[in-house]
Amino acid sequence: MTSRRKVIRIVYGLVCAALLLTGLIVALYMERIHRHDDIIVQVSREYDVDPRLVSAIIWRESRFNADVIGAADEIGLMQVTDLVGETWARSHDIDKYSSEDLFDPETNIRAGVWYLSRAIEQWSHRSDPLPYALAQYNAGRSNALRWAEHDEGKPRRFVENITFPTTRDYVENILKRYRGR
Asked: DSSP states of 12-71 as a string?
């Protein structure tokens, strides 16, 4: 066999191996982002929140990694704080709550969607409550109220009023992913 043919066979083998590896990576990635679809749908229905919105938040918060811990100690898929977890547990008469419970995907999604649904309800008097609810989810109610003070009831103005660049980006990114714009 000529050296040229050997090189071609080696290159061909490397290309095939790269394609197989790429396929495996894509398959593992797809499995990870769809692993919790049943829980997302079930919990979203319970709290009357669109499961596509929940998935968009999970994508932004954790890229579907249930073991991630945020910079401010937020936990899991929806990056739920321990305070939100405790409040959720109390509101559901769960006596034996621990912040470690938030690493469980179902618990995390339940607490996160519960908190999100409350935020959406709190802003339901607005023409489009989602930017407000998302800002509240990310930066807290007091900040969202401050940014809403001078928005003239206009969600676009509200987003422009967000003084935390990371929160503004968060809201815009999730709305884009959710609404497909």
From this structure: HHHHHHHHHHHHHHHHHHHHHHHTTHHHHHHHHHHHT--HHHHHHHHHHHHTT-TT-B-T
| CATH number assigned to the domain comprising residue 150 | 1.10.530.10
Which domain, by its residues, includes 27?
Answer: 1-34
Rg (CA), the chain: 21
Please give the pLDDT value at position 4. Answer: 84
Decide if 80 contacts 112 (C-beta within 8 A).
yes
pLDDT tens digit sequence for 78-110:
999 999 999 999 999 999 999 999 999 999 999
Q: Which of 134, 85, 133, 82 is nearest to 106 (CA)?
A: 85
Provide the β-strand partners of residue 75: 69, 80
* Distance from C-alpha of 158 to C-alpha of 48, rounded to nearest angstrom: 24
Question: How would you write 111-149 as a 3-class SS string?
Answer: HHHHHHHHHHHHCCCCCCHHHHHHHHHHHCHHHHHHHHC
pLDDT of 27: 64
Claim to verify: residue 92 and residue 50 sit in the same structural domain:
yes
Q: pTM for this structure?
A: 0.84
User: Could you tell me if 84 and 133 lie in one domain?
Assistant: yes
User: What Å distances lie between residue 156 and 104, 106, 151, 161, 170, CA to CA?
Assistant: 36, 33, 8, 9, 14
